[in-house]
Design goal:
Helicase, Ruva Protein, domain 3, single chain, disordered N terminus, binds calcium ion, globular, 5-stranded antiparallel β-sheet, 7 strands, two-stranded antiparallel ribbon
């Protein structure tokens, strides 16, 4: 489970991380962080967290600079989708997944019977989220969330998670020391964020604890339970790889276009293997992430269920495809593009500069295509009555070059030197209403951190994840 990024978050991240990295933890700063941490006590108390639990989780807590560094990078958005999917569905992951299907057959039988969720999708999520438990994340969840909440990066998201995380400790589902997770506080074998954990994790083995860190039945049971409430339909696929007719431009259909499979068929779209659609009345969206240059899909209800786990469509495609491969189906027939249609770093930065100059984007030029830039491209496409898919192509860049006013003399090439403009809040993970019943405490001011020098927009090498 991951959260989306925004240019503003990147900015705060760069500044805060640098300050945290470069500065020795002065008593004054430690004091400010602790003041912020302690400000969560009233909300925790209202949620019936005891003072002892709160103290155990927060006493002497220091911010974790690595968390803010990590918040700047998310592979689903940064990598070309073909590369991301290929990596997520690697030969090794497929092999280990098949072994897990055998090893946990009895458990998976039970989960299919109880929740009506296909075993392959459960195992695929396990594989993509933590590499079947190899990578649970080694960051203390309370520390990560407090770092995010108190230093500005993803603060709104983190504030909404802290009380739920403290309640995990209060219930005794796990201990403070064992409660590790990703930089964003995603926890256990299948990486639940605390609010989702609170609402949907299950005690599958019946020992009284919902231990998604150390008990495989609890972890996989929780995933199946969550997919069930996310309206997974038993025995149905997430989608089909399709062949587009030559005349059909996939960019004419936005991600909000729903048609039945029969209606798509009438437009000339067929399954790649030529077979008919088994349930032609099912509603589907066209998903052609690389336009006409790569595999195209008609995605169904179950694809949207996977998106409840993680809002990135590349993630849902990777999970769905891994599940299919685990079930013995073939790789995609169509190849992903190999680069000729992809923008270079310089071109991505130019695109962002031009989107800012034309009023379609606010924030920093960093060359990273995140949710902010995709939104900017969509805004431009809407304004020009183009198909709205948010896909940053060379065609869009060339149009902008012709239309945009000449850029200002000083190139805004360094993220931290830009003045942050107010941005829409970063999109939050799909969290059901029930999971957010506990109100986060009032908005805290980010702890003010001195900056020794501007952070550069140089891309970091980040360890491979998933
Ligand atoms: Ca248990």
């Amino acid at each position: 489970m991951r959260i989306a990024r925004s240019p503003k978050a990147l900015m705060f991240g760069a500044i805060s991380a640098l300050a945290l990295t470069l500065l020795p933890p002065s008593p004054a700063f430690a004091g400010k962080f602790q003041t912020c941490v302690q400000s969560f006590w009233p909300a925790a108390k209202r949620a019936k967290v005891s003072r002892a639990t709160f103290d155990r989780a927060t006493k002497g807590l220091t911010p974790d600079p690595e968390v803010i560094e990590s918040a700047k990078y998310q592979p689903e958005y940064k990598k070309p989708i073909g590369e991301y999917v290929d990596r997520a569905v690697s030969v090794k992951r497929l092999k280990v997944g098949k072994e897990k299907l055998v090893e946990y057959k009895v458990l998976l039988d039970k989960l299919e019977a109880k929740y009506g969720v296909d075993r392959h999708i459960v195992v695929a999520i396990w594989g993509v989220e933590s590499n079947y438990g190899d990578n649970l994340g080694d960051k203390n969840v309370i520390r990560s969330l407090m770092t995010l909440a108190c230093s500005g990066t993803k603060a709104k998201y983190a504030r909404g998670q802290i009380v739920s995380a403290l309640r995990v400790l209060q219930r005794g589902d796990t201990t403070f020391d064992a409660m590790n997770g990703s930089w964003a506080g995603a926890m256990g074998h299948t990486q639940f964020i605390p609010t989702t954990y609170t609402a949907y994790a299950v005690d599958q083995d019946g020992d009284g604890k919902r231990d998604i860190w150390g008990t495989i039945p609890d972890a996989l049971g929780s995933t199946a339970a969550y997919l069930k409430v996310s309206k997974w339909k038993r025995g149905q696929t997430w989608g089909y790889e399709v062949k587009l007719p030559k005349r059909l431009n996939p960019k004419r259909y936005s991600s909000r276009t729903y048609k039945t499979l029969a209606q798509w068929r009438k437009l000339g779209i067929t399954r790649i293997n030529g077979r008919p659609f088994p349930r032609p009345a099912d509603k589907a969206q066209l998903f052609a992430p690389e336009g006409k240059n790569g595999p195209a899909f008609l995605v169904l209800n179950n694809f949207r269920s996977i998106l409840r786990y993680n809002v990135a469509k590349s993630y849902a495609l990777a999970v769905g495809h891994l599940a299919d491969r685990l079930a013995g189906y073939d790789p995609f027939v169509q190849a992903w593009p190999t680069g000729e249609n992809r923008l270079s770093l310089e071109q991505r930065m130019e695109l962002q500069t031009l989107l800012i100059a034309t009023g379609h984007l606010e924030g920093a030029v960093d060359g990273i295509i995140g949710s902010g830039t995709l939104g900017g491209v969509r805004s431009y496409q809407r304004a020009k009555s183009l198909p709205v898919d948010g896909y940053p192509t060379l065609t869009i860049l060339n149009r902008l070059r012709k239309e945009a006013p000449p850029p200002p003399v000083q190139q805004p090439a360094v993220a931290a030197e830009q003045v942050a403009s107010p941005q829409a809040a970063p999109p939050l993970p799909a969290v059901p209403a029930a999971a957010t019943a506990v109100q986060p405490p009032p908005v805290q001011q980010p702890v003010a951190l001195p900056v020794r020098r501007p952070a550069s927009a140089v891309e970091k090498t980040v360890p491979a994840q998933n």
